[in-house]
Amino acid sequence: MEDRRVAYRYRLPLAVVVRRLPLDQGPGEHQAMTRDVSTSGVYFTSGQRLSVGIKLDLALTLPPEVTQGSEVVIDAQARVMRVDEQPTDLLNRFGIAAVIDRFNVSRAAVDFALHKAEHATDVRRPAATTSG
């Protein structure tokens, strides 16, 4: 089987809130757990079976240990590409592979990254010297 991934996947067990789109279809939101994530997709396990092709809104938080700073909240819109009936070592759960169509990073995370970049630039900039 050919691996068609376009981005590196990180093995991160994170809590994720899953909502079906549009929001007025199907059951409301539920909690799931990621197995791995990338900028182009996510694999999570869920107690609810989802159908291939449905659209989802996913919300997850990257912890400070991963981001080397503060928590980063990610809101992603995704489509279910594959459903595994019984992922290994999990009873009564489904493995869901979803491709991410669009994602947003929290404003606090963007501000933090900009602050770190500005600080790194200031540190590398040589001090001004005066000649007399």
Output the CATH topology: Thrombin, subunit H
CATH arch. level architecture: Beta Barrel
Largest β-sheet summary:
6 strands, antiparallel, barrel
Helix content: 10-25%
Radius of gyration: 19 Å
Proportion of beta-strand residues: 35-45%
The CATH C-level name is Mainly Beta
Q: Segments where pLDDT lies below 50 for 5+ residues?
A: none
- Name of the CATH superfamily: predicted glycosyltransferase like domains
SS content category: alpha+beta
Blueprint of the fold:
Elements: E1 10-11, E2 15-21, E3 30-37, E4 41-46, E5 55-62, H1 64-67, E6 72-84, E7 94-105, H2 107-124
Antiparallel strand pairs: 1-3, 2-3, 2-5, 3-4, 4-7, 5-6, 6-7
How would you describe what is shown here?
With 132 residues, the protein is an alpha+beta fold. The chain has a single domain (10-124), classed as Beta Barrel (Thrombin, subunit H), CATH 2.40.10. Helix content is 17%, strand content 42%. A hairpin with an 8-residue loop joins strand 2 and strand 3 (30-37). The longest helix is centred in the last third of the chain and has 18 residues, at 107-124.
Summarize the structure.
This protein is of the alpha+beta class. Helix content is 17%, strand content 42%.
Properties at a glance:
132 residues; alpha+beta; 7 strands; single chain; 17% helix; six-stranded antiparallel β-barrel
